[in-house]
């Protein structure tokens, strides 16, 4: 499936790298222009909906409003006002182009659970890095001698001439999937959180709350039960993500995008389960 | 060759953009995620499907004959998906969004983060005894 070396010719990744990045940049510019357009379009719509409501049933609206405020008021510590999200096409454009750009620049598949894994088991990773450095420090000569002896034993002297004249030998190294040390993964995770914070600050502000929004509060309250449920749910997520080999970025985006069988099975599995469990929540607790 | 410093700068930039996008899309909001799963709102579903379609197009365009990741089916695929799906539905949090929840002020999301770490440690403990297969891709 993965061909690390290209025999002859310019390798397609190198050829399409610049236009690919240009396309992604264009997508991002379009995205931010689109955001303002979408916002400009959304606000009048809310007003229009409110007006039609007030036209049809004045009484029920006031009733709803009263009930709504009564319901929301206790939980309003968590609810940010007038929170609007991106329309679907904008989100799709953002996530899709991000996945491609990530791989195109960093030569790693976008996968966040992998970063979690690396950060959680930093001790193991440090050991691995040390071993790798040990191989490198052993000197290229020793490694090369061993490789040479093995090559001669396997293919005979003629193989050496071929190897010397083979093109794109240096390109192979750059195409191979890269890995990152633990600290880089930690930076990545922290910056994801920071990005979310910036987004929230720019759109409605941040307010501290002891629940996950009014809906979650309606299901699990805001006491010990909530913390317990969240911890157990988190444990199921962490365990399942490692057992399945990826989360919704690794499997859902970069795996499904490449039509990988394992990713499709896992994605179908977690989406289906999430739908079932959510419907159960609504029926049993709602 | 990419140096570690450059890699870190790129990772930081991509992390920022990813976090920003996820928050703006609504993946860090239990309400939105729950509405996706009970089919009250198709916005997030279309977002996800559109993102996969765009990634597919990019995969065809930029990585002909190659794959971004190699993820074969293995014995843990379905079971892992079931566990993750249940956790996602209950907490509204995928591993990516967990830190965003904490960042935007939902204090109990700290329990989710602790749970994710605990789950990974439990898996790590049990793996040599019960799950002796490769989960593919990035090990």
Number of strands of chain B: 0
Mean pLDDT of chain A: 72
Contiguous runs where pLDDT drops below 50 for at least 5 residues of chain B: none
Percentage beta strand of chain B: under 5%
Compute the number of helices of chain A. Answer: 13
Order of helices and strands of chain A: HHHHHHHHHHHHH
Rough outline of chain B:
globular
One letter per element, helices H and strands E, the order of chain B comes to HHHHHH
Describe this entry's structure for a reader.
The complex is a heterodimer of chains A (286) and B (139). Chain A has 286 residues and is mostly helical. Chain A is built from 13 helices and no strands. Chain A has helices at residues 12-56, 58-75, 88-106, 112-120, 122-137, 140-155, 158-165, 171-175, 182-202, 214-220, 224-244, 248-257, 261-284. In chain A, helix 4 packs across helix 5 (122-137) and helix 4 packs across helix 9. The longest helix of chain A is centred in the first third of the chain and has 45 residues, at 12-56. Chain A starts with 11 loop residues before the first helix and ends with a helix. With 139 residues, chain B is mainly alpha-helical. In chain B, 69% of the residues lie in helices and 0% in strands. Chain B is globular. Classes of the chains: A mainly alpha (286), B mainly alpha (139). At the A-B interface, helix 1, helix 3, helix 4, helix 8 and helix 9 of A face helix 1, helix 2, helix 3, helix 4 and helix 5 of B.
């Amino acid at each position: 499936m993965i061909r690390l070396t290209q025999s002859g010719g310019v390798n397609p990744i190198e050829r399409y790298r610049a236009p690919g990045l240009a396309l992604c940049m264009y997508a991002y510019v379009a995205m931010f222009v689109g955001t303002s357009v979408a916002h400009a379009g959304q606000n009048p719509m809310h007003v229009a909906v409110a007006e039609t409501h007030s036209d049809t049933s004045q009484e029920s609206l006031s009733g709803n409003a009263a009930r709504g405020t009564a319901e929301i008021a206790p939980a309003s510590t968590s609810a940010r006002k007038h929170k609007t999200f991106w329309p679907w096409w904008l989100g799709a454009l953002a996530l899709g182009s991000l996945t491609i750009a990530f791989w195109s620049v960093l030569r790693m598949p976008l996968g966040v659970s992998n970063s979690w894994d690396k950060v959680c088991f930093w001790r193991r990773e440090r050991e691995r890095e040390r071993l790798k450095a040990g191989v490198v420090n052993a000197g290229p000569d020793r490694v090369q001698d061993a490789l040479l002896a093995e090559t001669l034993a396997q293919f005979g002297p003629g193989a050496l001439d071929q190897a010397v004249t083979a093109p794109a030998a240096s390109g192979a190294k750059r195409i191979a999937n890269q890995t990152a040390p633990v600290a880089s993964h930690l930076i990545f995770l922290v910056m994801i959180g920071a990005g979310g914070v910036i987004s929230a600050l720019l759109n409605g502000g941040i307010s501290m709350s002891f629940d996950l929004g009014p809906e979650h509060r309606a299901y699990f309250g805001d006491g010990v039960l909530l913390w317990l449920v969240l911890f157990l749910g988190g444990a199921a997520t962490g365990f399942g993500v490692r057992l399945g080999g990826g989360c919704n970025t690794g499997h859902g985006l970069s795996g499904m995008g490449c039509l990988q069988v394992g990713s499709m099975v896992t994605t179908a599995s977690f989406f289906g389960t999430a739908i079932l469990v959510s419907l159960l929540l609504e029926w049993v607790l709602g | 060759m990419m140096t570690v410093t450059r890699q870190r700068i790129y990772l930081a930039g991509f992390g920022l953009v990813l976090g920003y996008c996820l928050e703006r899309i609504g993946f860090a909001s239990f309400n939105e995620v729950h509405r996706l799963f009970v089919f009250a709102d198709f916005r997030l579903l279309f977002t996800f499907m559109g993102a996969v379609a765009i990634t597919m197009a990019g995969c065809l365009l930029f990585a002909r004959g190659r794959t971004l990741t190699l993820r074969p089916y293995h014995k843990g695929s379905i079971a892992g998906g079931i566990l993750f799906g249940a956790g996602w539905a209950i907490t509204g949090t995928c591993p990516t969004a967990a830190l965003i929840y904490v960042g935007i002020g939902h204090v109990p999301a700290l329990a989710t983060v602790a749970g994710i770490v605990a789950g990974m440690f439990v898996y790590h403990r049990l793996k040599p005894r019960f799950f002796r297969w490769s989960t593919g891709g990035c090990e």
